């Protein structure tokens, strides 16, 4: 697999299990790009939904993608602390067009005090039936939710103290 180059701008494409494009983020800056890990950043980035609606992200965010884990992590820098939004998803792939993953609806929202909520289980159950998710996929996704929760409680990876702040400081060096 090819890796995006640090300092380059890429799009991020989210798909659904049936192959339909779900969401596109424009102009994310790659801060670290290897075949295994991509760390990116964006701020006030244009997002296009599958139905054509558009919106802009409200705050700076550091995005963490891994080629082996079934989740990605977005650390959003807000006035009252860092909030994390974790998409339960396929591992990423990168090609000349974009960084891509399949979004499986389930999300873990993590607050600055490191408490968290699992979101969108109802949406997941509907899509699991509609798109005929295999039983093994269900097990993989729920196992990765537990793995992700352990990362949060152990402050590992993108949840480690200073991770988001360090990468945000690097992001600022590219912007000014």
Automatic annotation (TrEMBL):
Keyword Magnesium: yes
MF (Gene Ontology): magnesium ion binding; nucleoside diphosphate phosphatase activity; ribonucleoside triphosphate phosphatase activity
Segments traversing the membrane: none
Annotated catalysed reactions: a ribonucleoside 5'-diphosphate + H2O = a ribonucleoside 5'-phosphate + phosphate + H(+); a ribonucleoside 5'-triphosphate + H2O = a ribonucleoside 5'-diphosphate + phosphate + H(+)
Native organism: Ornithinibacillus halophilus
Top-rank taxon, per record: Bacteria
Record-annotated active site: 23 (proton donor)
Signal peptide start-end: none
EC identifiers of the protein: 3.6.1.15, 3.6.1.6
One Pfam family from the record: DUF402
Family: Belongs to the Ntdp family.
InterPro entries from the UniProt entry: DUF402, FomD-like_sf, Ntdp-like, SA1684
Function in brief: Has nucleoside phosphatase activity towards nucleoside triphosphates and nucleoside diphosphates.
Protein name (record): Nucleoside triphosphate/diphosphate phosphatase
Residues the record lists as binding Mg(2+) 1: 87, 103, 107
Residues holding Mg(2+) 2: 105, 107, 120, 123
Residue ranges occupied by any DUF402 domain in the UniProt entry: 18-156
Keywords associated with the record: Hydrolase, Magnesium, Metal-binding
Cofactor dependence: Mg(2+)
